[in-house]
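A reminder from the course coordinator: this example appears on the midterm review sheet, so study it carefully.

Given structure:
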C-alpha cells in the first residue's frame, strides 16, 4: 500500500489541516449517531444536546492530560505549562476516560439514570473514534516498525525525503501504520454494533462486546509501534487495554449472573 500524502489546504491566510477536518467530522457524526439512536429508543434528544459540551470538554481534557503525563513526562518536567496546551498531544484512552468522567458528572447532576443512555453513548463513541482514526490514518501520526509485511504502508518519508505534494508515494521504507490498522478494524466493529443494537440478552451486553473485541486488538497493535513510552515493557495504551478488558470480564459475569444464576422471585399461589 503506498503512502498517501495530504498536505494542509491553504485558503488565503487560513490553513486547514486534514486531521482537523476529520476531527470535526468525527464530532458531528458522533453527535448525529447519538441523536439517531436516542430517537429510536424514544429518549429525550435534548439530553444529548445538553451533554455534548460536557463530553467535548471531558474528551479533550482527558486525552491531553493522559498524553502529557504518561507519554511525555519529560515535557511536563521541563515546562508544566504544556498541561494547558490542549492541542499539543492527545491519547485515545485518555479521551475515553475523560468522556466517562463527563458522563458520570453530567448524568449525576441531572439526576438521570445513565443506563438508559449507555448504548446511545457507546454508538456515538464508536463512530467518533472511527472517523478520528481515519484522520490518524490519513496523516500517519502513529508510525509502526519497519517491516516487510504486505499490508504495511510503503513510502514513509525520511530526513532526506524531498517535500511532497498531494498524492501516493513509495519512495521510502515500509512501516506498519497503526492508525490505519485500527481504522480498518473499527469499520466492522462499528457495523456489528449497529446490527446488534436491538439485541441485548443481558445488561451492558454491548459495552462488554466492544471491550472484549477492541482491547485485545489495541493491546497487540501497540507491540508494532516504533516510538512509544514504555513502563516495565508495556505501553500506557496496553495497560489501559488490560484494565478495560478486566472491566469487560467483570461486566460479563455480572450480566450472566443476573440472567441465569440469581433465583427468580417466587410468585405466591
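Designed residues:
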Amino acid at each position: 500500500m503506498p503512502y498517501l500524502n495530504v498536505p494542509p489546504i491553504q485558503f488565503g491566510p487560513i490553513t486547514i489541516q486534514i486531521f482537523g477536518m476529520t476531527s470535526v467530522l468525527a464530532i458531528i457524526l458522533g453527535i448525529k449517531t447519538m441523536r439517531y439512536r436516542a430517537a429510536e429508543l424514544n429518549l429525550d434528544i435534548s439530553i444529548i444536546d445538553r451533554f455534548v459540551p460536557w463530553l467535548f470538554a471531558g474528551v479533550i481534557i482527558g486525552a491531553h492530560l493522559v498524553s502529557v503525563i504518561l507519554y511525555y513526562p519529560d515535557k511536563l518536567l521541563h515546562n508544566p505549562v504544556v498541561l494547558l496546551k490542549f492541542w499539543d498531544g492527545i491519547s485515545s484512552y485518555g479521551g475515553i476516560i475523560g468522556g466517562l468522567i463527563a458522563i458520570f458528572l453530567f448524568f449525576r447532576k441531572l439526576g438521570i439514570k445513565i443506563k438508559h443512555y449507555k448504548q446511545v453513548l457507546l454508538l456515538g463513541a464508536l463512530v467518533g473514534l472511527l472517523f478520528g482514526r481515519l484522520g490518524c490514518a490519513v496523516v500517519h501520526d502513529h508510525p509502526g516498525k519497519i517491516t516487510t509485511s504486505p499490508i504495511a504502508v510503503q513510502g514513509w518519508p525520511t530526513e532526506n525525503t524531498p517535500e511532497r505534494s498531494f498524492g501516493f508515494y513509495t519512495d521510502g521504507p515500509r512501516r506498519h501504520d497503526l492508525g490505519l490498522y485500527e481504522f480498518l478494524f473499527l469499520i466492522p466493529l462499528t457495523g456489528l454494533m449497529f446490527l446488534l443494537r436491538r439485541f441485548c440478552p443481558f445488561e451492558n451486553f454491548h459495552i462488554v462486546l466492544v471491550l472484549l473485541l477492541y482491547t485485545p486488538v489495541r493491546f497487540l497493535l501497540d507491540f508494532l509501534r516504533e516510538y512509544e513510552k514504555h513502563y516495565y515493557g508495556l505501553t500506557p495504551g496496553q495497560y489501559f487495554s488490560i484494565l478495560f478488558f478486566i472491566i469487560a470480564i467483570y461486566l460479563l459475569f455480572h450480566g450472566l449472573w443476573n440472567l441465569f444464576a440469581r433465583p427468580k422471585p417466587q410468585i405466591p399461589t
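Residues 3-196 form one domain. The longest helix spans residues 45-71.
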